Amino acid sequence: EFDRIPVGSASLAQVHRARLRSTSNHIGDEVAVKVQHRYIELTVASDLCVVRWLDRLASVAFAAEGFSLAWAIDQLSSNLARELDFELEAENSERCRCFFQEHPTLSKRVAVPRVHLGLSTKKMLVMDYVHGVPVSYLVKATQRQAAVVRELKHANNAGGLDRCEPQGGAPPQESHDIQELLTAQYSSQVADSLVEAFAAMFFCSGFVHCDPHPGNILVEM
Predict the structure, then answer these.
(1) What is the pLDDT of residues 139-177, one digit of tens each?
(2) CA of 18: how far to CAs of 3, 26, 37, 89, 196, in Å?
(3) Helices and strands (H and E) in the chain: how many
(4) DSSP sequence for 21-70
(5) In 3-state terms, what secondary structure has residue 73?
(6) Which of 79, 86, 151, 195 could form a disulfide with 125 if both were Cys (CB 3.0 to 4.6 A apart)?
């Protein structure tokens, strides 16, 4: 089973939901398959070529100032080559997973998806599919909850609280609003776990996840 419509896409690759083949006594695991975009290596090479040409042009135009970004472009080229090696990413992911799995206080709060090394290649990464919401969802839910509280306080101070009350005995919150309020309550716990997790990586492991955007940090509800 393979969902051809990606659940996420970035500059270098996209992710598809899939399920491994089932056997007579085991249902196939649900997995996330990260696949590099077609011709991405050629695209990266051509982009780097353009950037180097622009740098040479700028270095001639600003020769008196000694301007050059060649060192930064060399670093970018080296890092992109590593990012395009999914076998290296699999190794890093497993190292990170083992660290949190063995951590005395974070092992039950932080989980890194298991990589299926036998199915992964330099251009494709297969790992356990994790269900959850991006951490940014909690931030937005907390912000919306705070806005509601501010509005209620303002209405109360202005003597207009009755205008905010539901009519006809209707419940004060719809089901999704209640869920959002409950979600906001978890925000401080998630924030504490994130701070502790990154502190552990910085000060204990020395091996740090350097791309912590919302798409890479999911919260199980």
Answers:
(1) 777 777 666 656 666 666 665 545 444 444 445 444 555
(2) 6, 16, 17, 20, 32
(3) 6, 6
(4) PPBTTBPPPEEEEEEEPTTHHHHHHHHHHHHHHHHHHHHHHTGGGT---H
(5) helix
(6) 86
Coil, strand or helix at 116: coil
Angle of CA points 146, 167, 185, to nearest 5°: 25
Residue 43: CA atoms inside 13 Å, Cβ hemisphere, count? 9
* C-alpha–C-alpha distance, residues 45 and 81, integer Å: 10
DSSP letters along 122-176, please?
SSEEEEE----EEHHHHHHHHHHHHHHHHHHHHHHHTT-GGGGSPSTT--SS-HH
Tokens 């090479």 found at: 45
Is the CB of residue 133 less than 8 Å from the CB of residue 221? yes
Do you know the residue count of the chain? 221
Sorted by sequence, the CB contacts under 8 Å of residue 85 that are 6+ apart come out as 122
Give catalytic residues, as residue numbers.
Answer: 211
DSSP 105: T
Query: Which residue is it, tokens 């951490």?
Result: 135
How many CB atoms neighbour CB 150 within 10 A? 10
Overall average pLDDT of the 95-116 stretch: 96
Distance, CA of 174 to CA of 148 (rounded, Å)? 14
Which stretch of 30-44, 85-99, 163-177 has the lowest confidence by average pLDDT? 163-177
